[in-house]
Amino acid sequence: MSEALESPKSGLETLKQIVAGFHSSSLELTREYRRLEERVATLRDELERKNQQLENSLREREDARGFLSSILNSLKAGVLVLDQDLRPTFANQRLRKLMGEVDRERVSELVGEKLLSCFMQRESNFLPLDCEREVRDANGKVTPIHLAISKIMTGGQSSGYVLVFQDISRLKRLEAEAARSTRLAALGSMAAEVAHQIKSPLGGIELYASLLKERQQGDTKRLAEEILGAVRRLYTTLSRLLSFVAEPSICAESLPVSVLMREVKEICQPLLKDEKTKLTFHVQPRLPSLWGDCALLTQAIFNLIVNATEAMPHGGRIRIAARLSPFYSVNGRVYRTIEIIVRDQGMGIPIENREKIFDPFFTTKPNGTGLGLALAHKIIGVHMGSIEVSSQPGQGSSFTIFLPVDERPRLSSEEESYGEANTCRG
After folding, report:
1. Angle formed by the axes of helices 218-245 and 169-215, to 10°?
2. Would you say 206 and 231 are in contact if contact means Cβ atoms under 8 Å apart?
3. What is the pLDDT of residue 151?
4. What is the pLDDT of residues 7-66, one digit of tens each?
5. Are 120 and 137 contacting, i.e. CB atoms less than 8 angstroms apart?
6. CA distances from 201 to 196, 221, 236, 280, 376 (A)
7. Which of 167, 196, 217 marks a domain boundary?
8. Which domain range does residue 87 map to?
9. Could you say which of 10, 44, 74 is where a domain stops?
10. d(CA 324, CA 338)
């Protein structure tokens, strides 16, 4: 009887223990859950921080990459990066402008497989390979370049190659100009000596021909007159030759470009009698003055304009423009320059003649002397300037004169008001 009464009590105690254990477990589970939540929150914060750091790092890398790309794109040299398999991975704007889009095939064409193979097999990992080459763009234009190839080293291992293409067209022109000046100096000395040697016997020929003309009749007199005409033409040629080889006498002064252009317009009026020929002048406003001889510079520009009119036998437009040009160096000295451009719509200059057009006595015209462009070139040279020509057969020619500005900055009131386009008509 007593055992039967104790059984419910024992069951109640057991139930209480179970409830207490469940409560304790629930509390422990709650504490674990909270700890887990805290851990998850900590991990989430750390993950967010890592993500933020990664984003910042990626942004910094992108900024650095963009900055480096901007630097490379601002260079005047073309830059090409290749991977280990010689596939292009980067080409700056200058390179794309110089050579167009570059793929693996184009790299082989530009550099040459043999040259790349030689470089890849070299023992030195850092010594660049330098050479000069000529590249042809999509339009067929050939450009001389200086090419430097170097390995890209990462962790002591080669990870690719960087190629730097430098356009050396201007350097080649300067080298050709220096060689031409040396050649012309020797030619000038020889020509002056020959001219003086010819003048004495020429005087004797003229004297005897004059006597024959006075004393003879018929065919003999006619032949004497032809001899005298030939002598006079030869004297004219000798005078032009001596004038060319002599150093021009310069009366330099501060010369506003507008004044120079006005003188050029004035001297060109006889050329405009043919209404089919039209001259258009445009001078950039507020140009600094030149330092030079107005008469000589006018003559040089006039010679270029005469050449342009002769290149347009059926008429056309000749544009003369003046503007401020970038800096350039002459004999190690840097100048600001004025560009004076004479552009015609003529037949153009064949490629094989472009290197000769400034040589004395070179002409393609039946009655030309070959001294007009040579004299213009010489006048610009004594003003520490230069002339460049660009031409395409059938598309006209453009002669660009570069002249240093007056180092003493001054601007005439006349030049301030001169800047609009002016047109001369016959």
Report:
1. 150
2. yes
3. 80
4. 666 767 777 777 777 777 788 888 888 888 888 888 888 888 888 888 888 888 888 878
5. no
6. 10, 21, 15, 48, 31
7. 167
8. 78-167
9. 74
10. 5
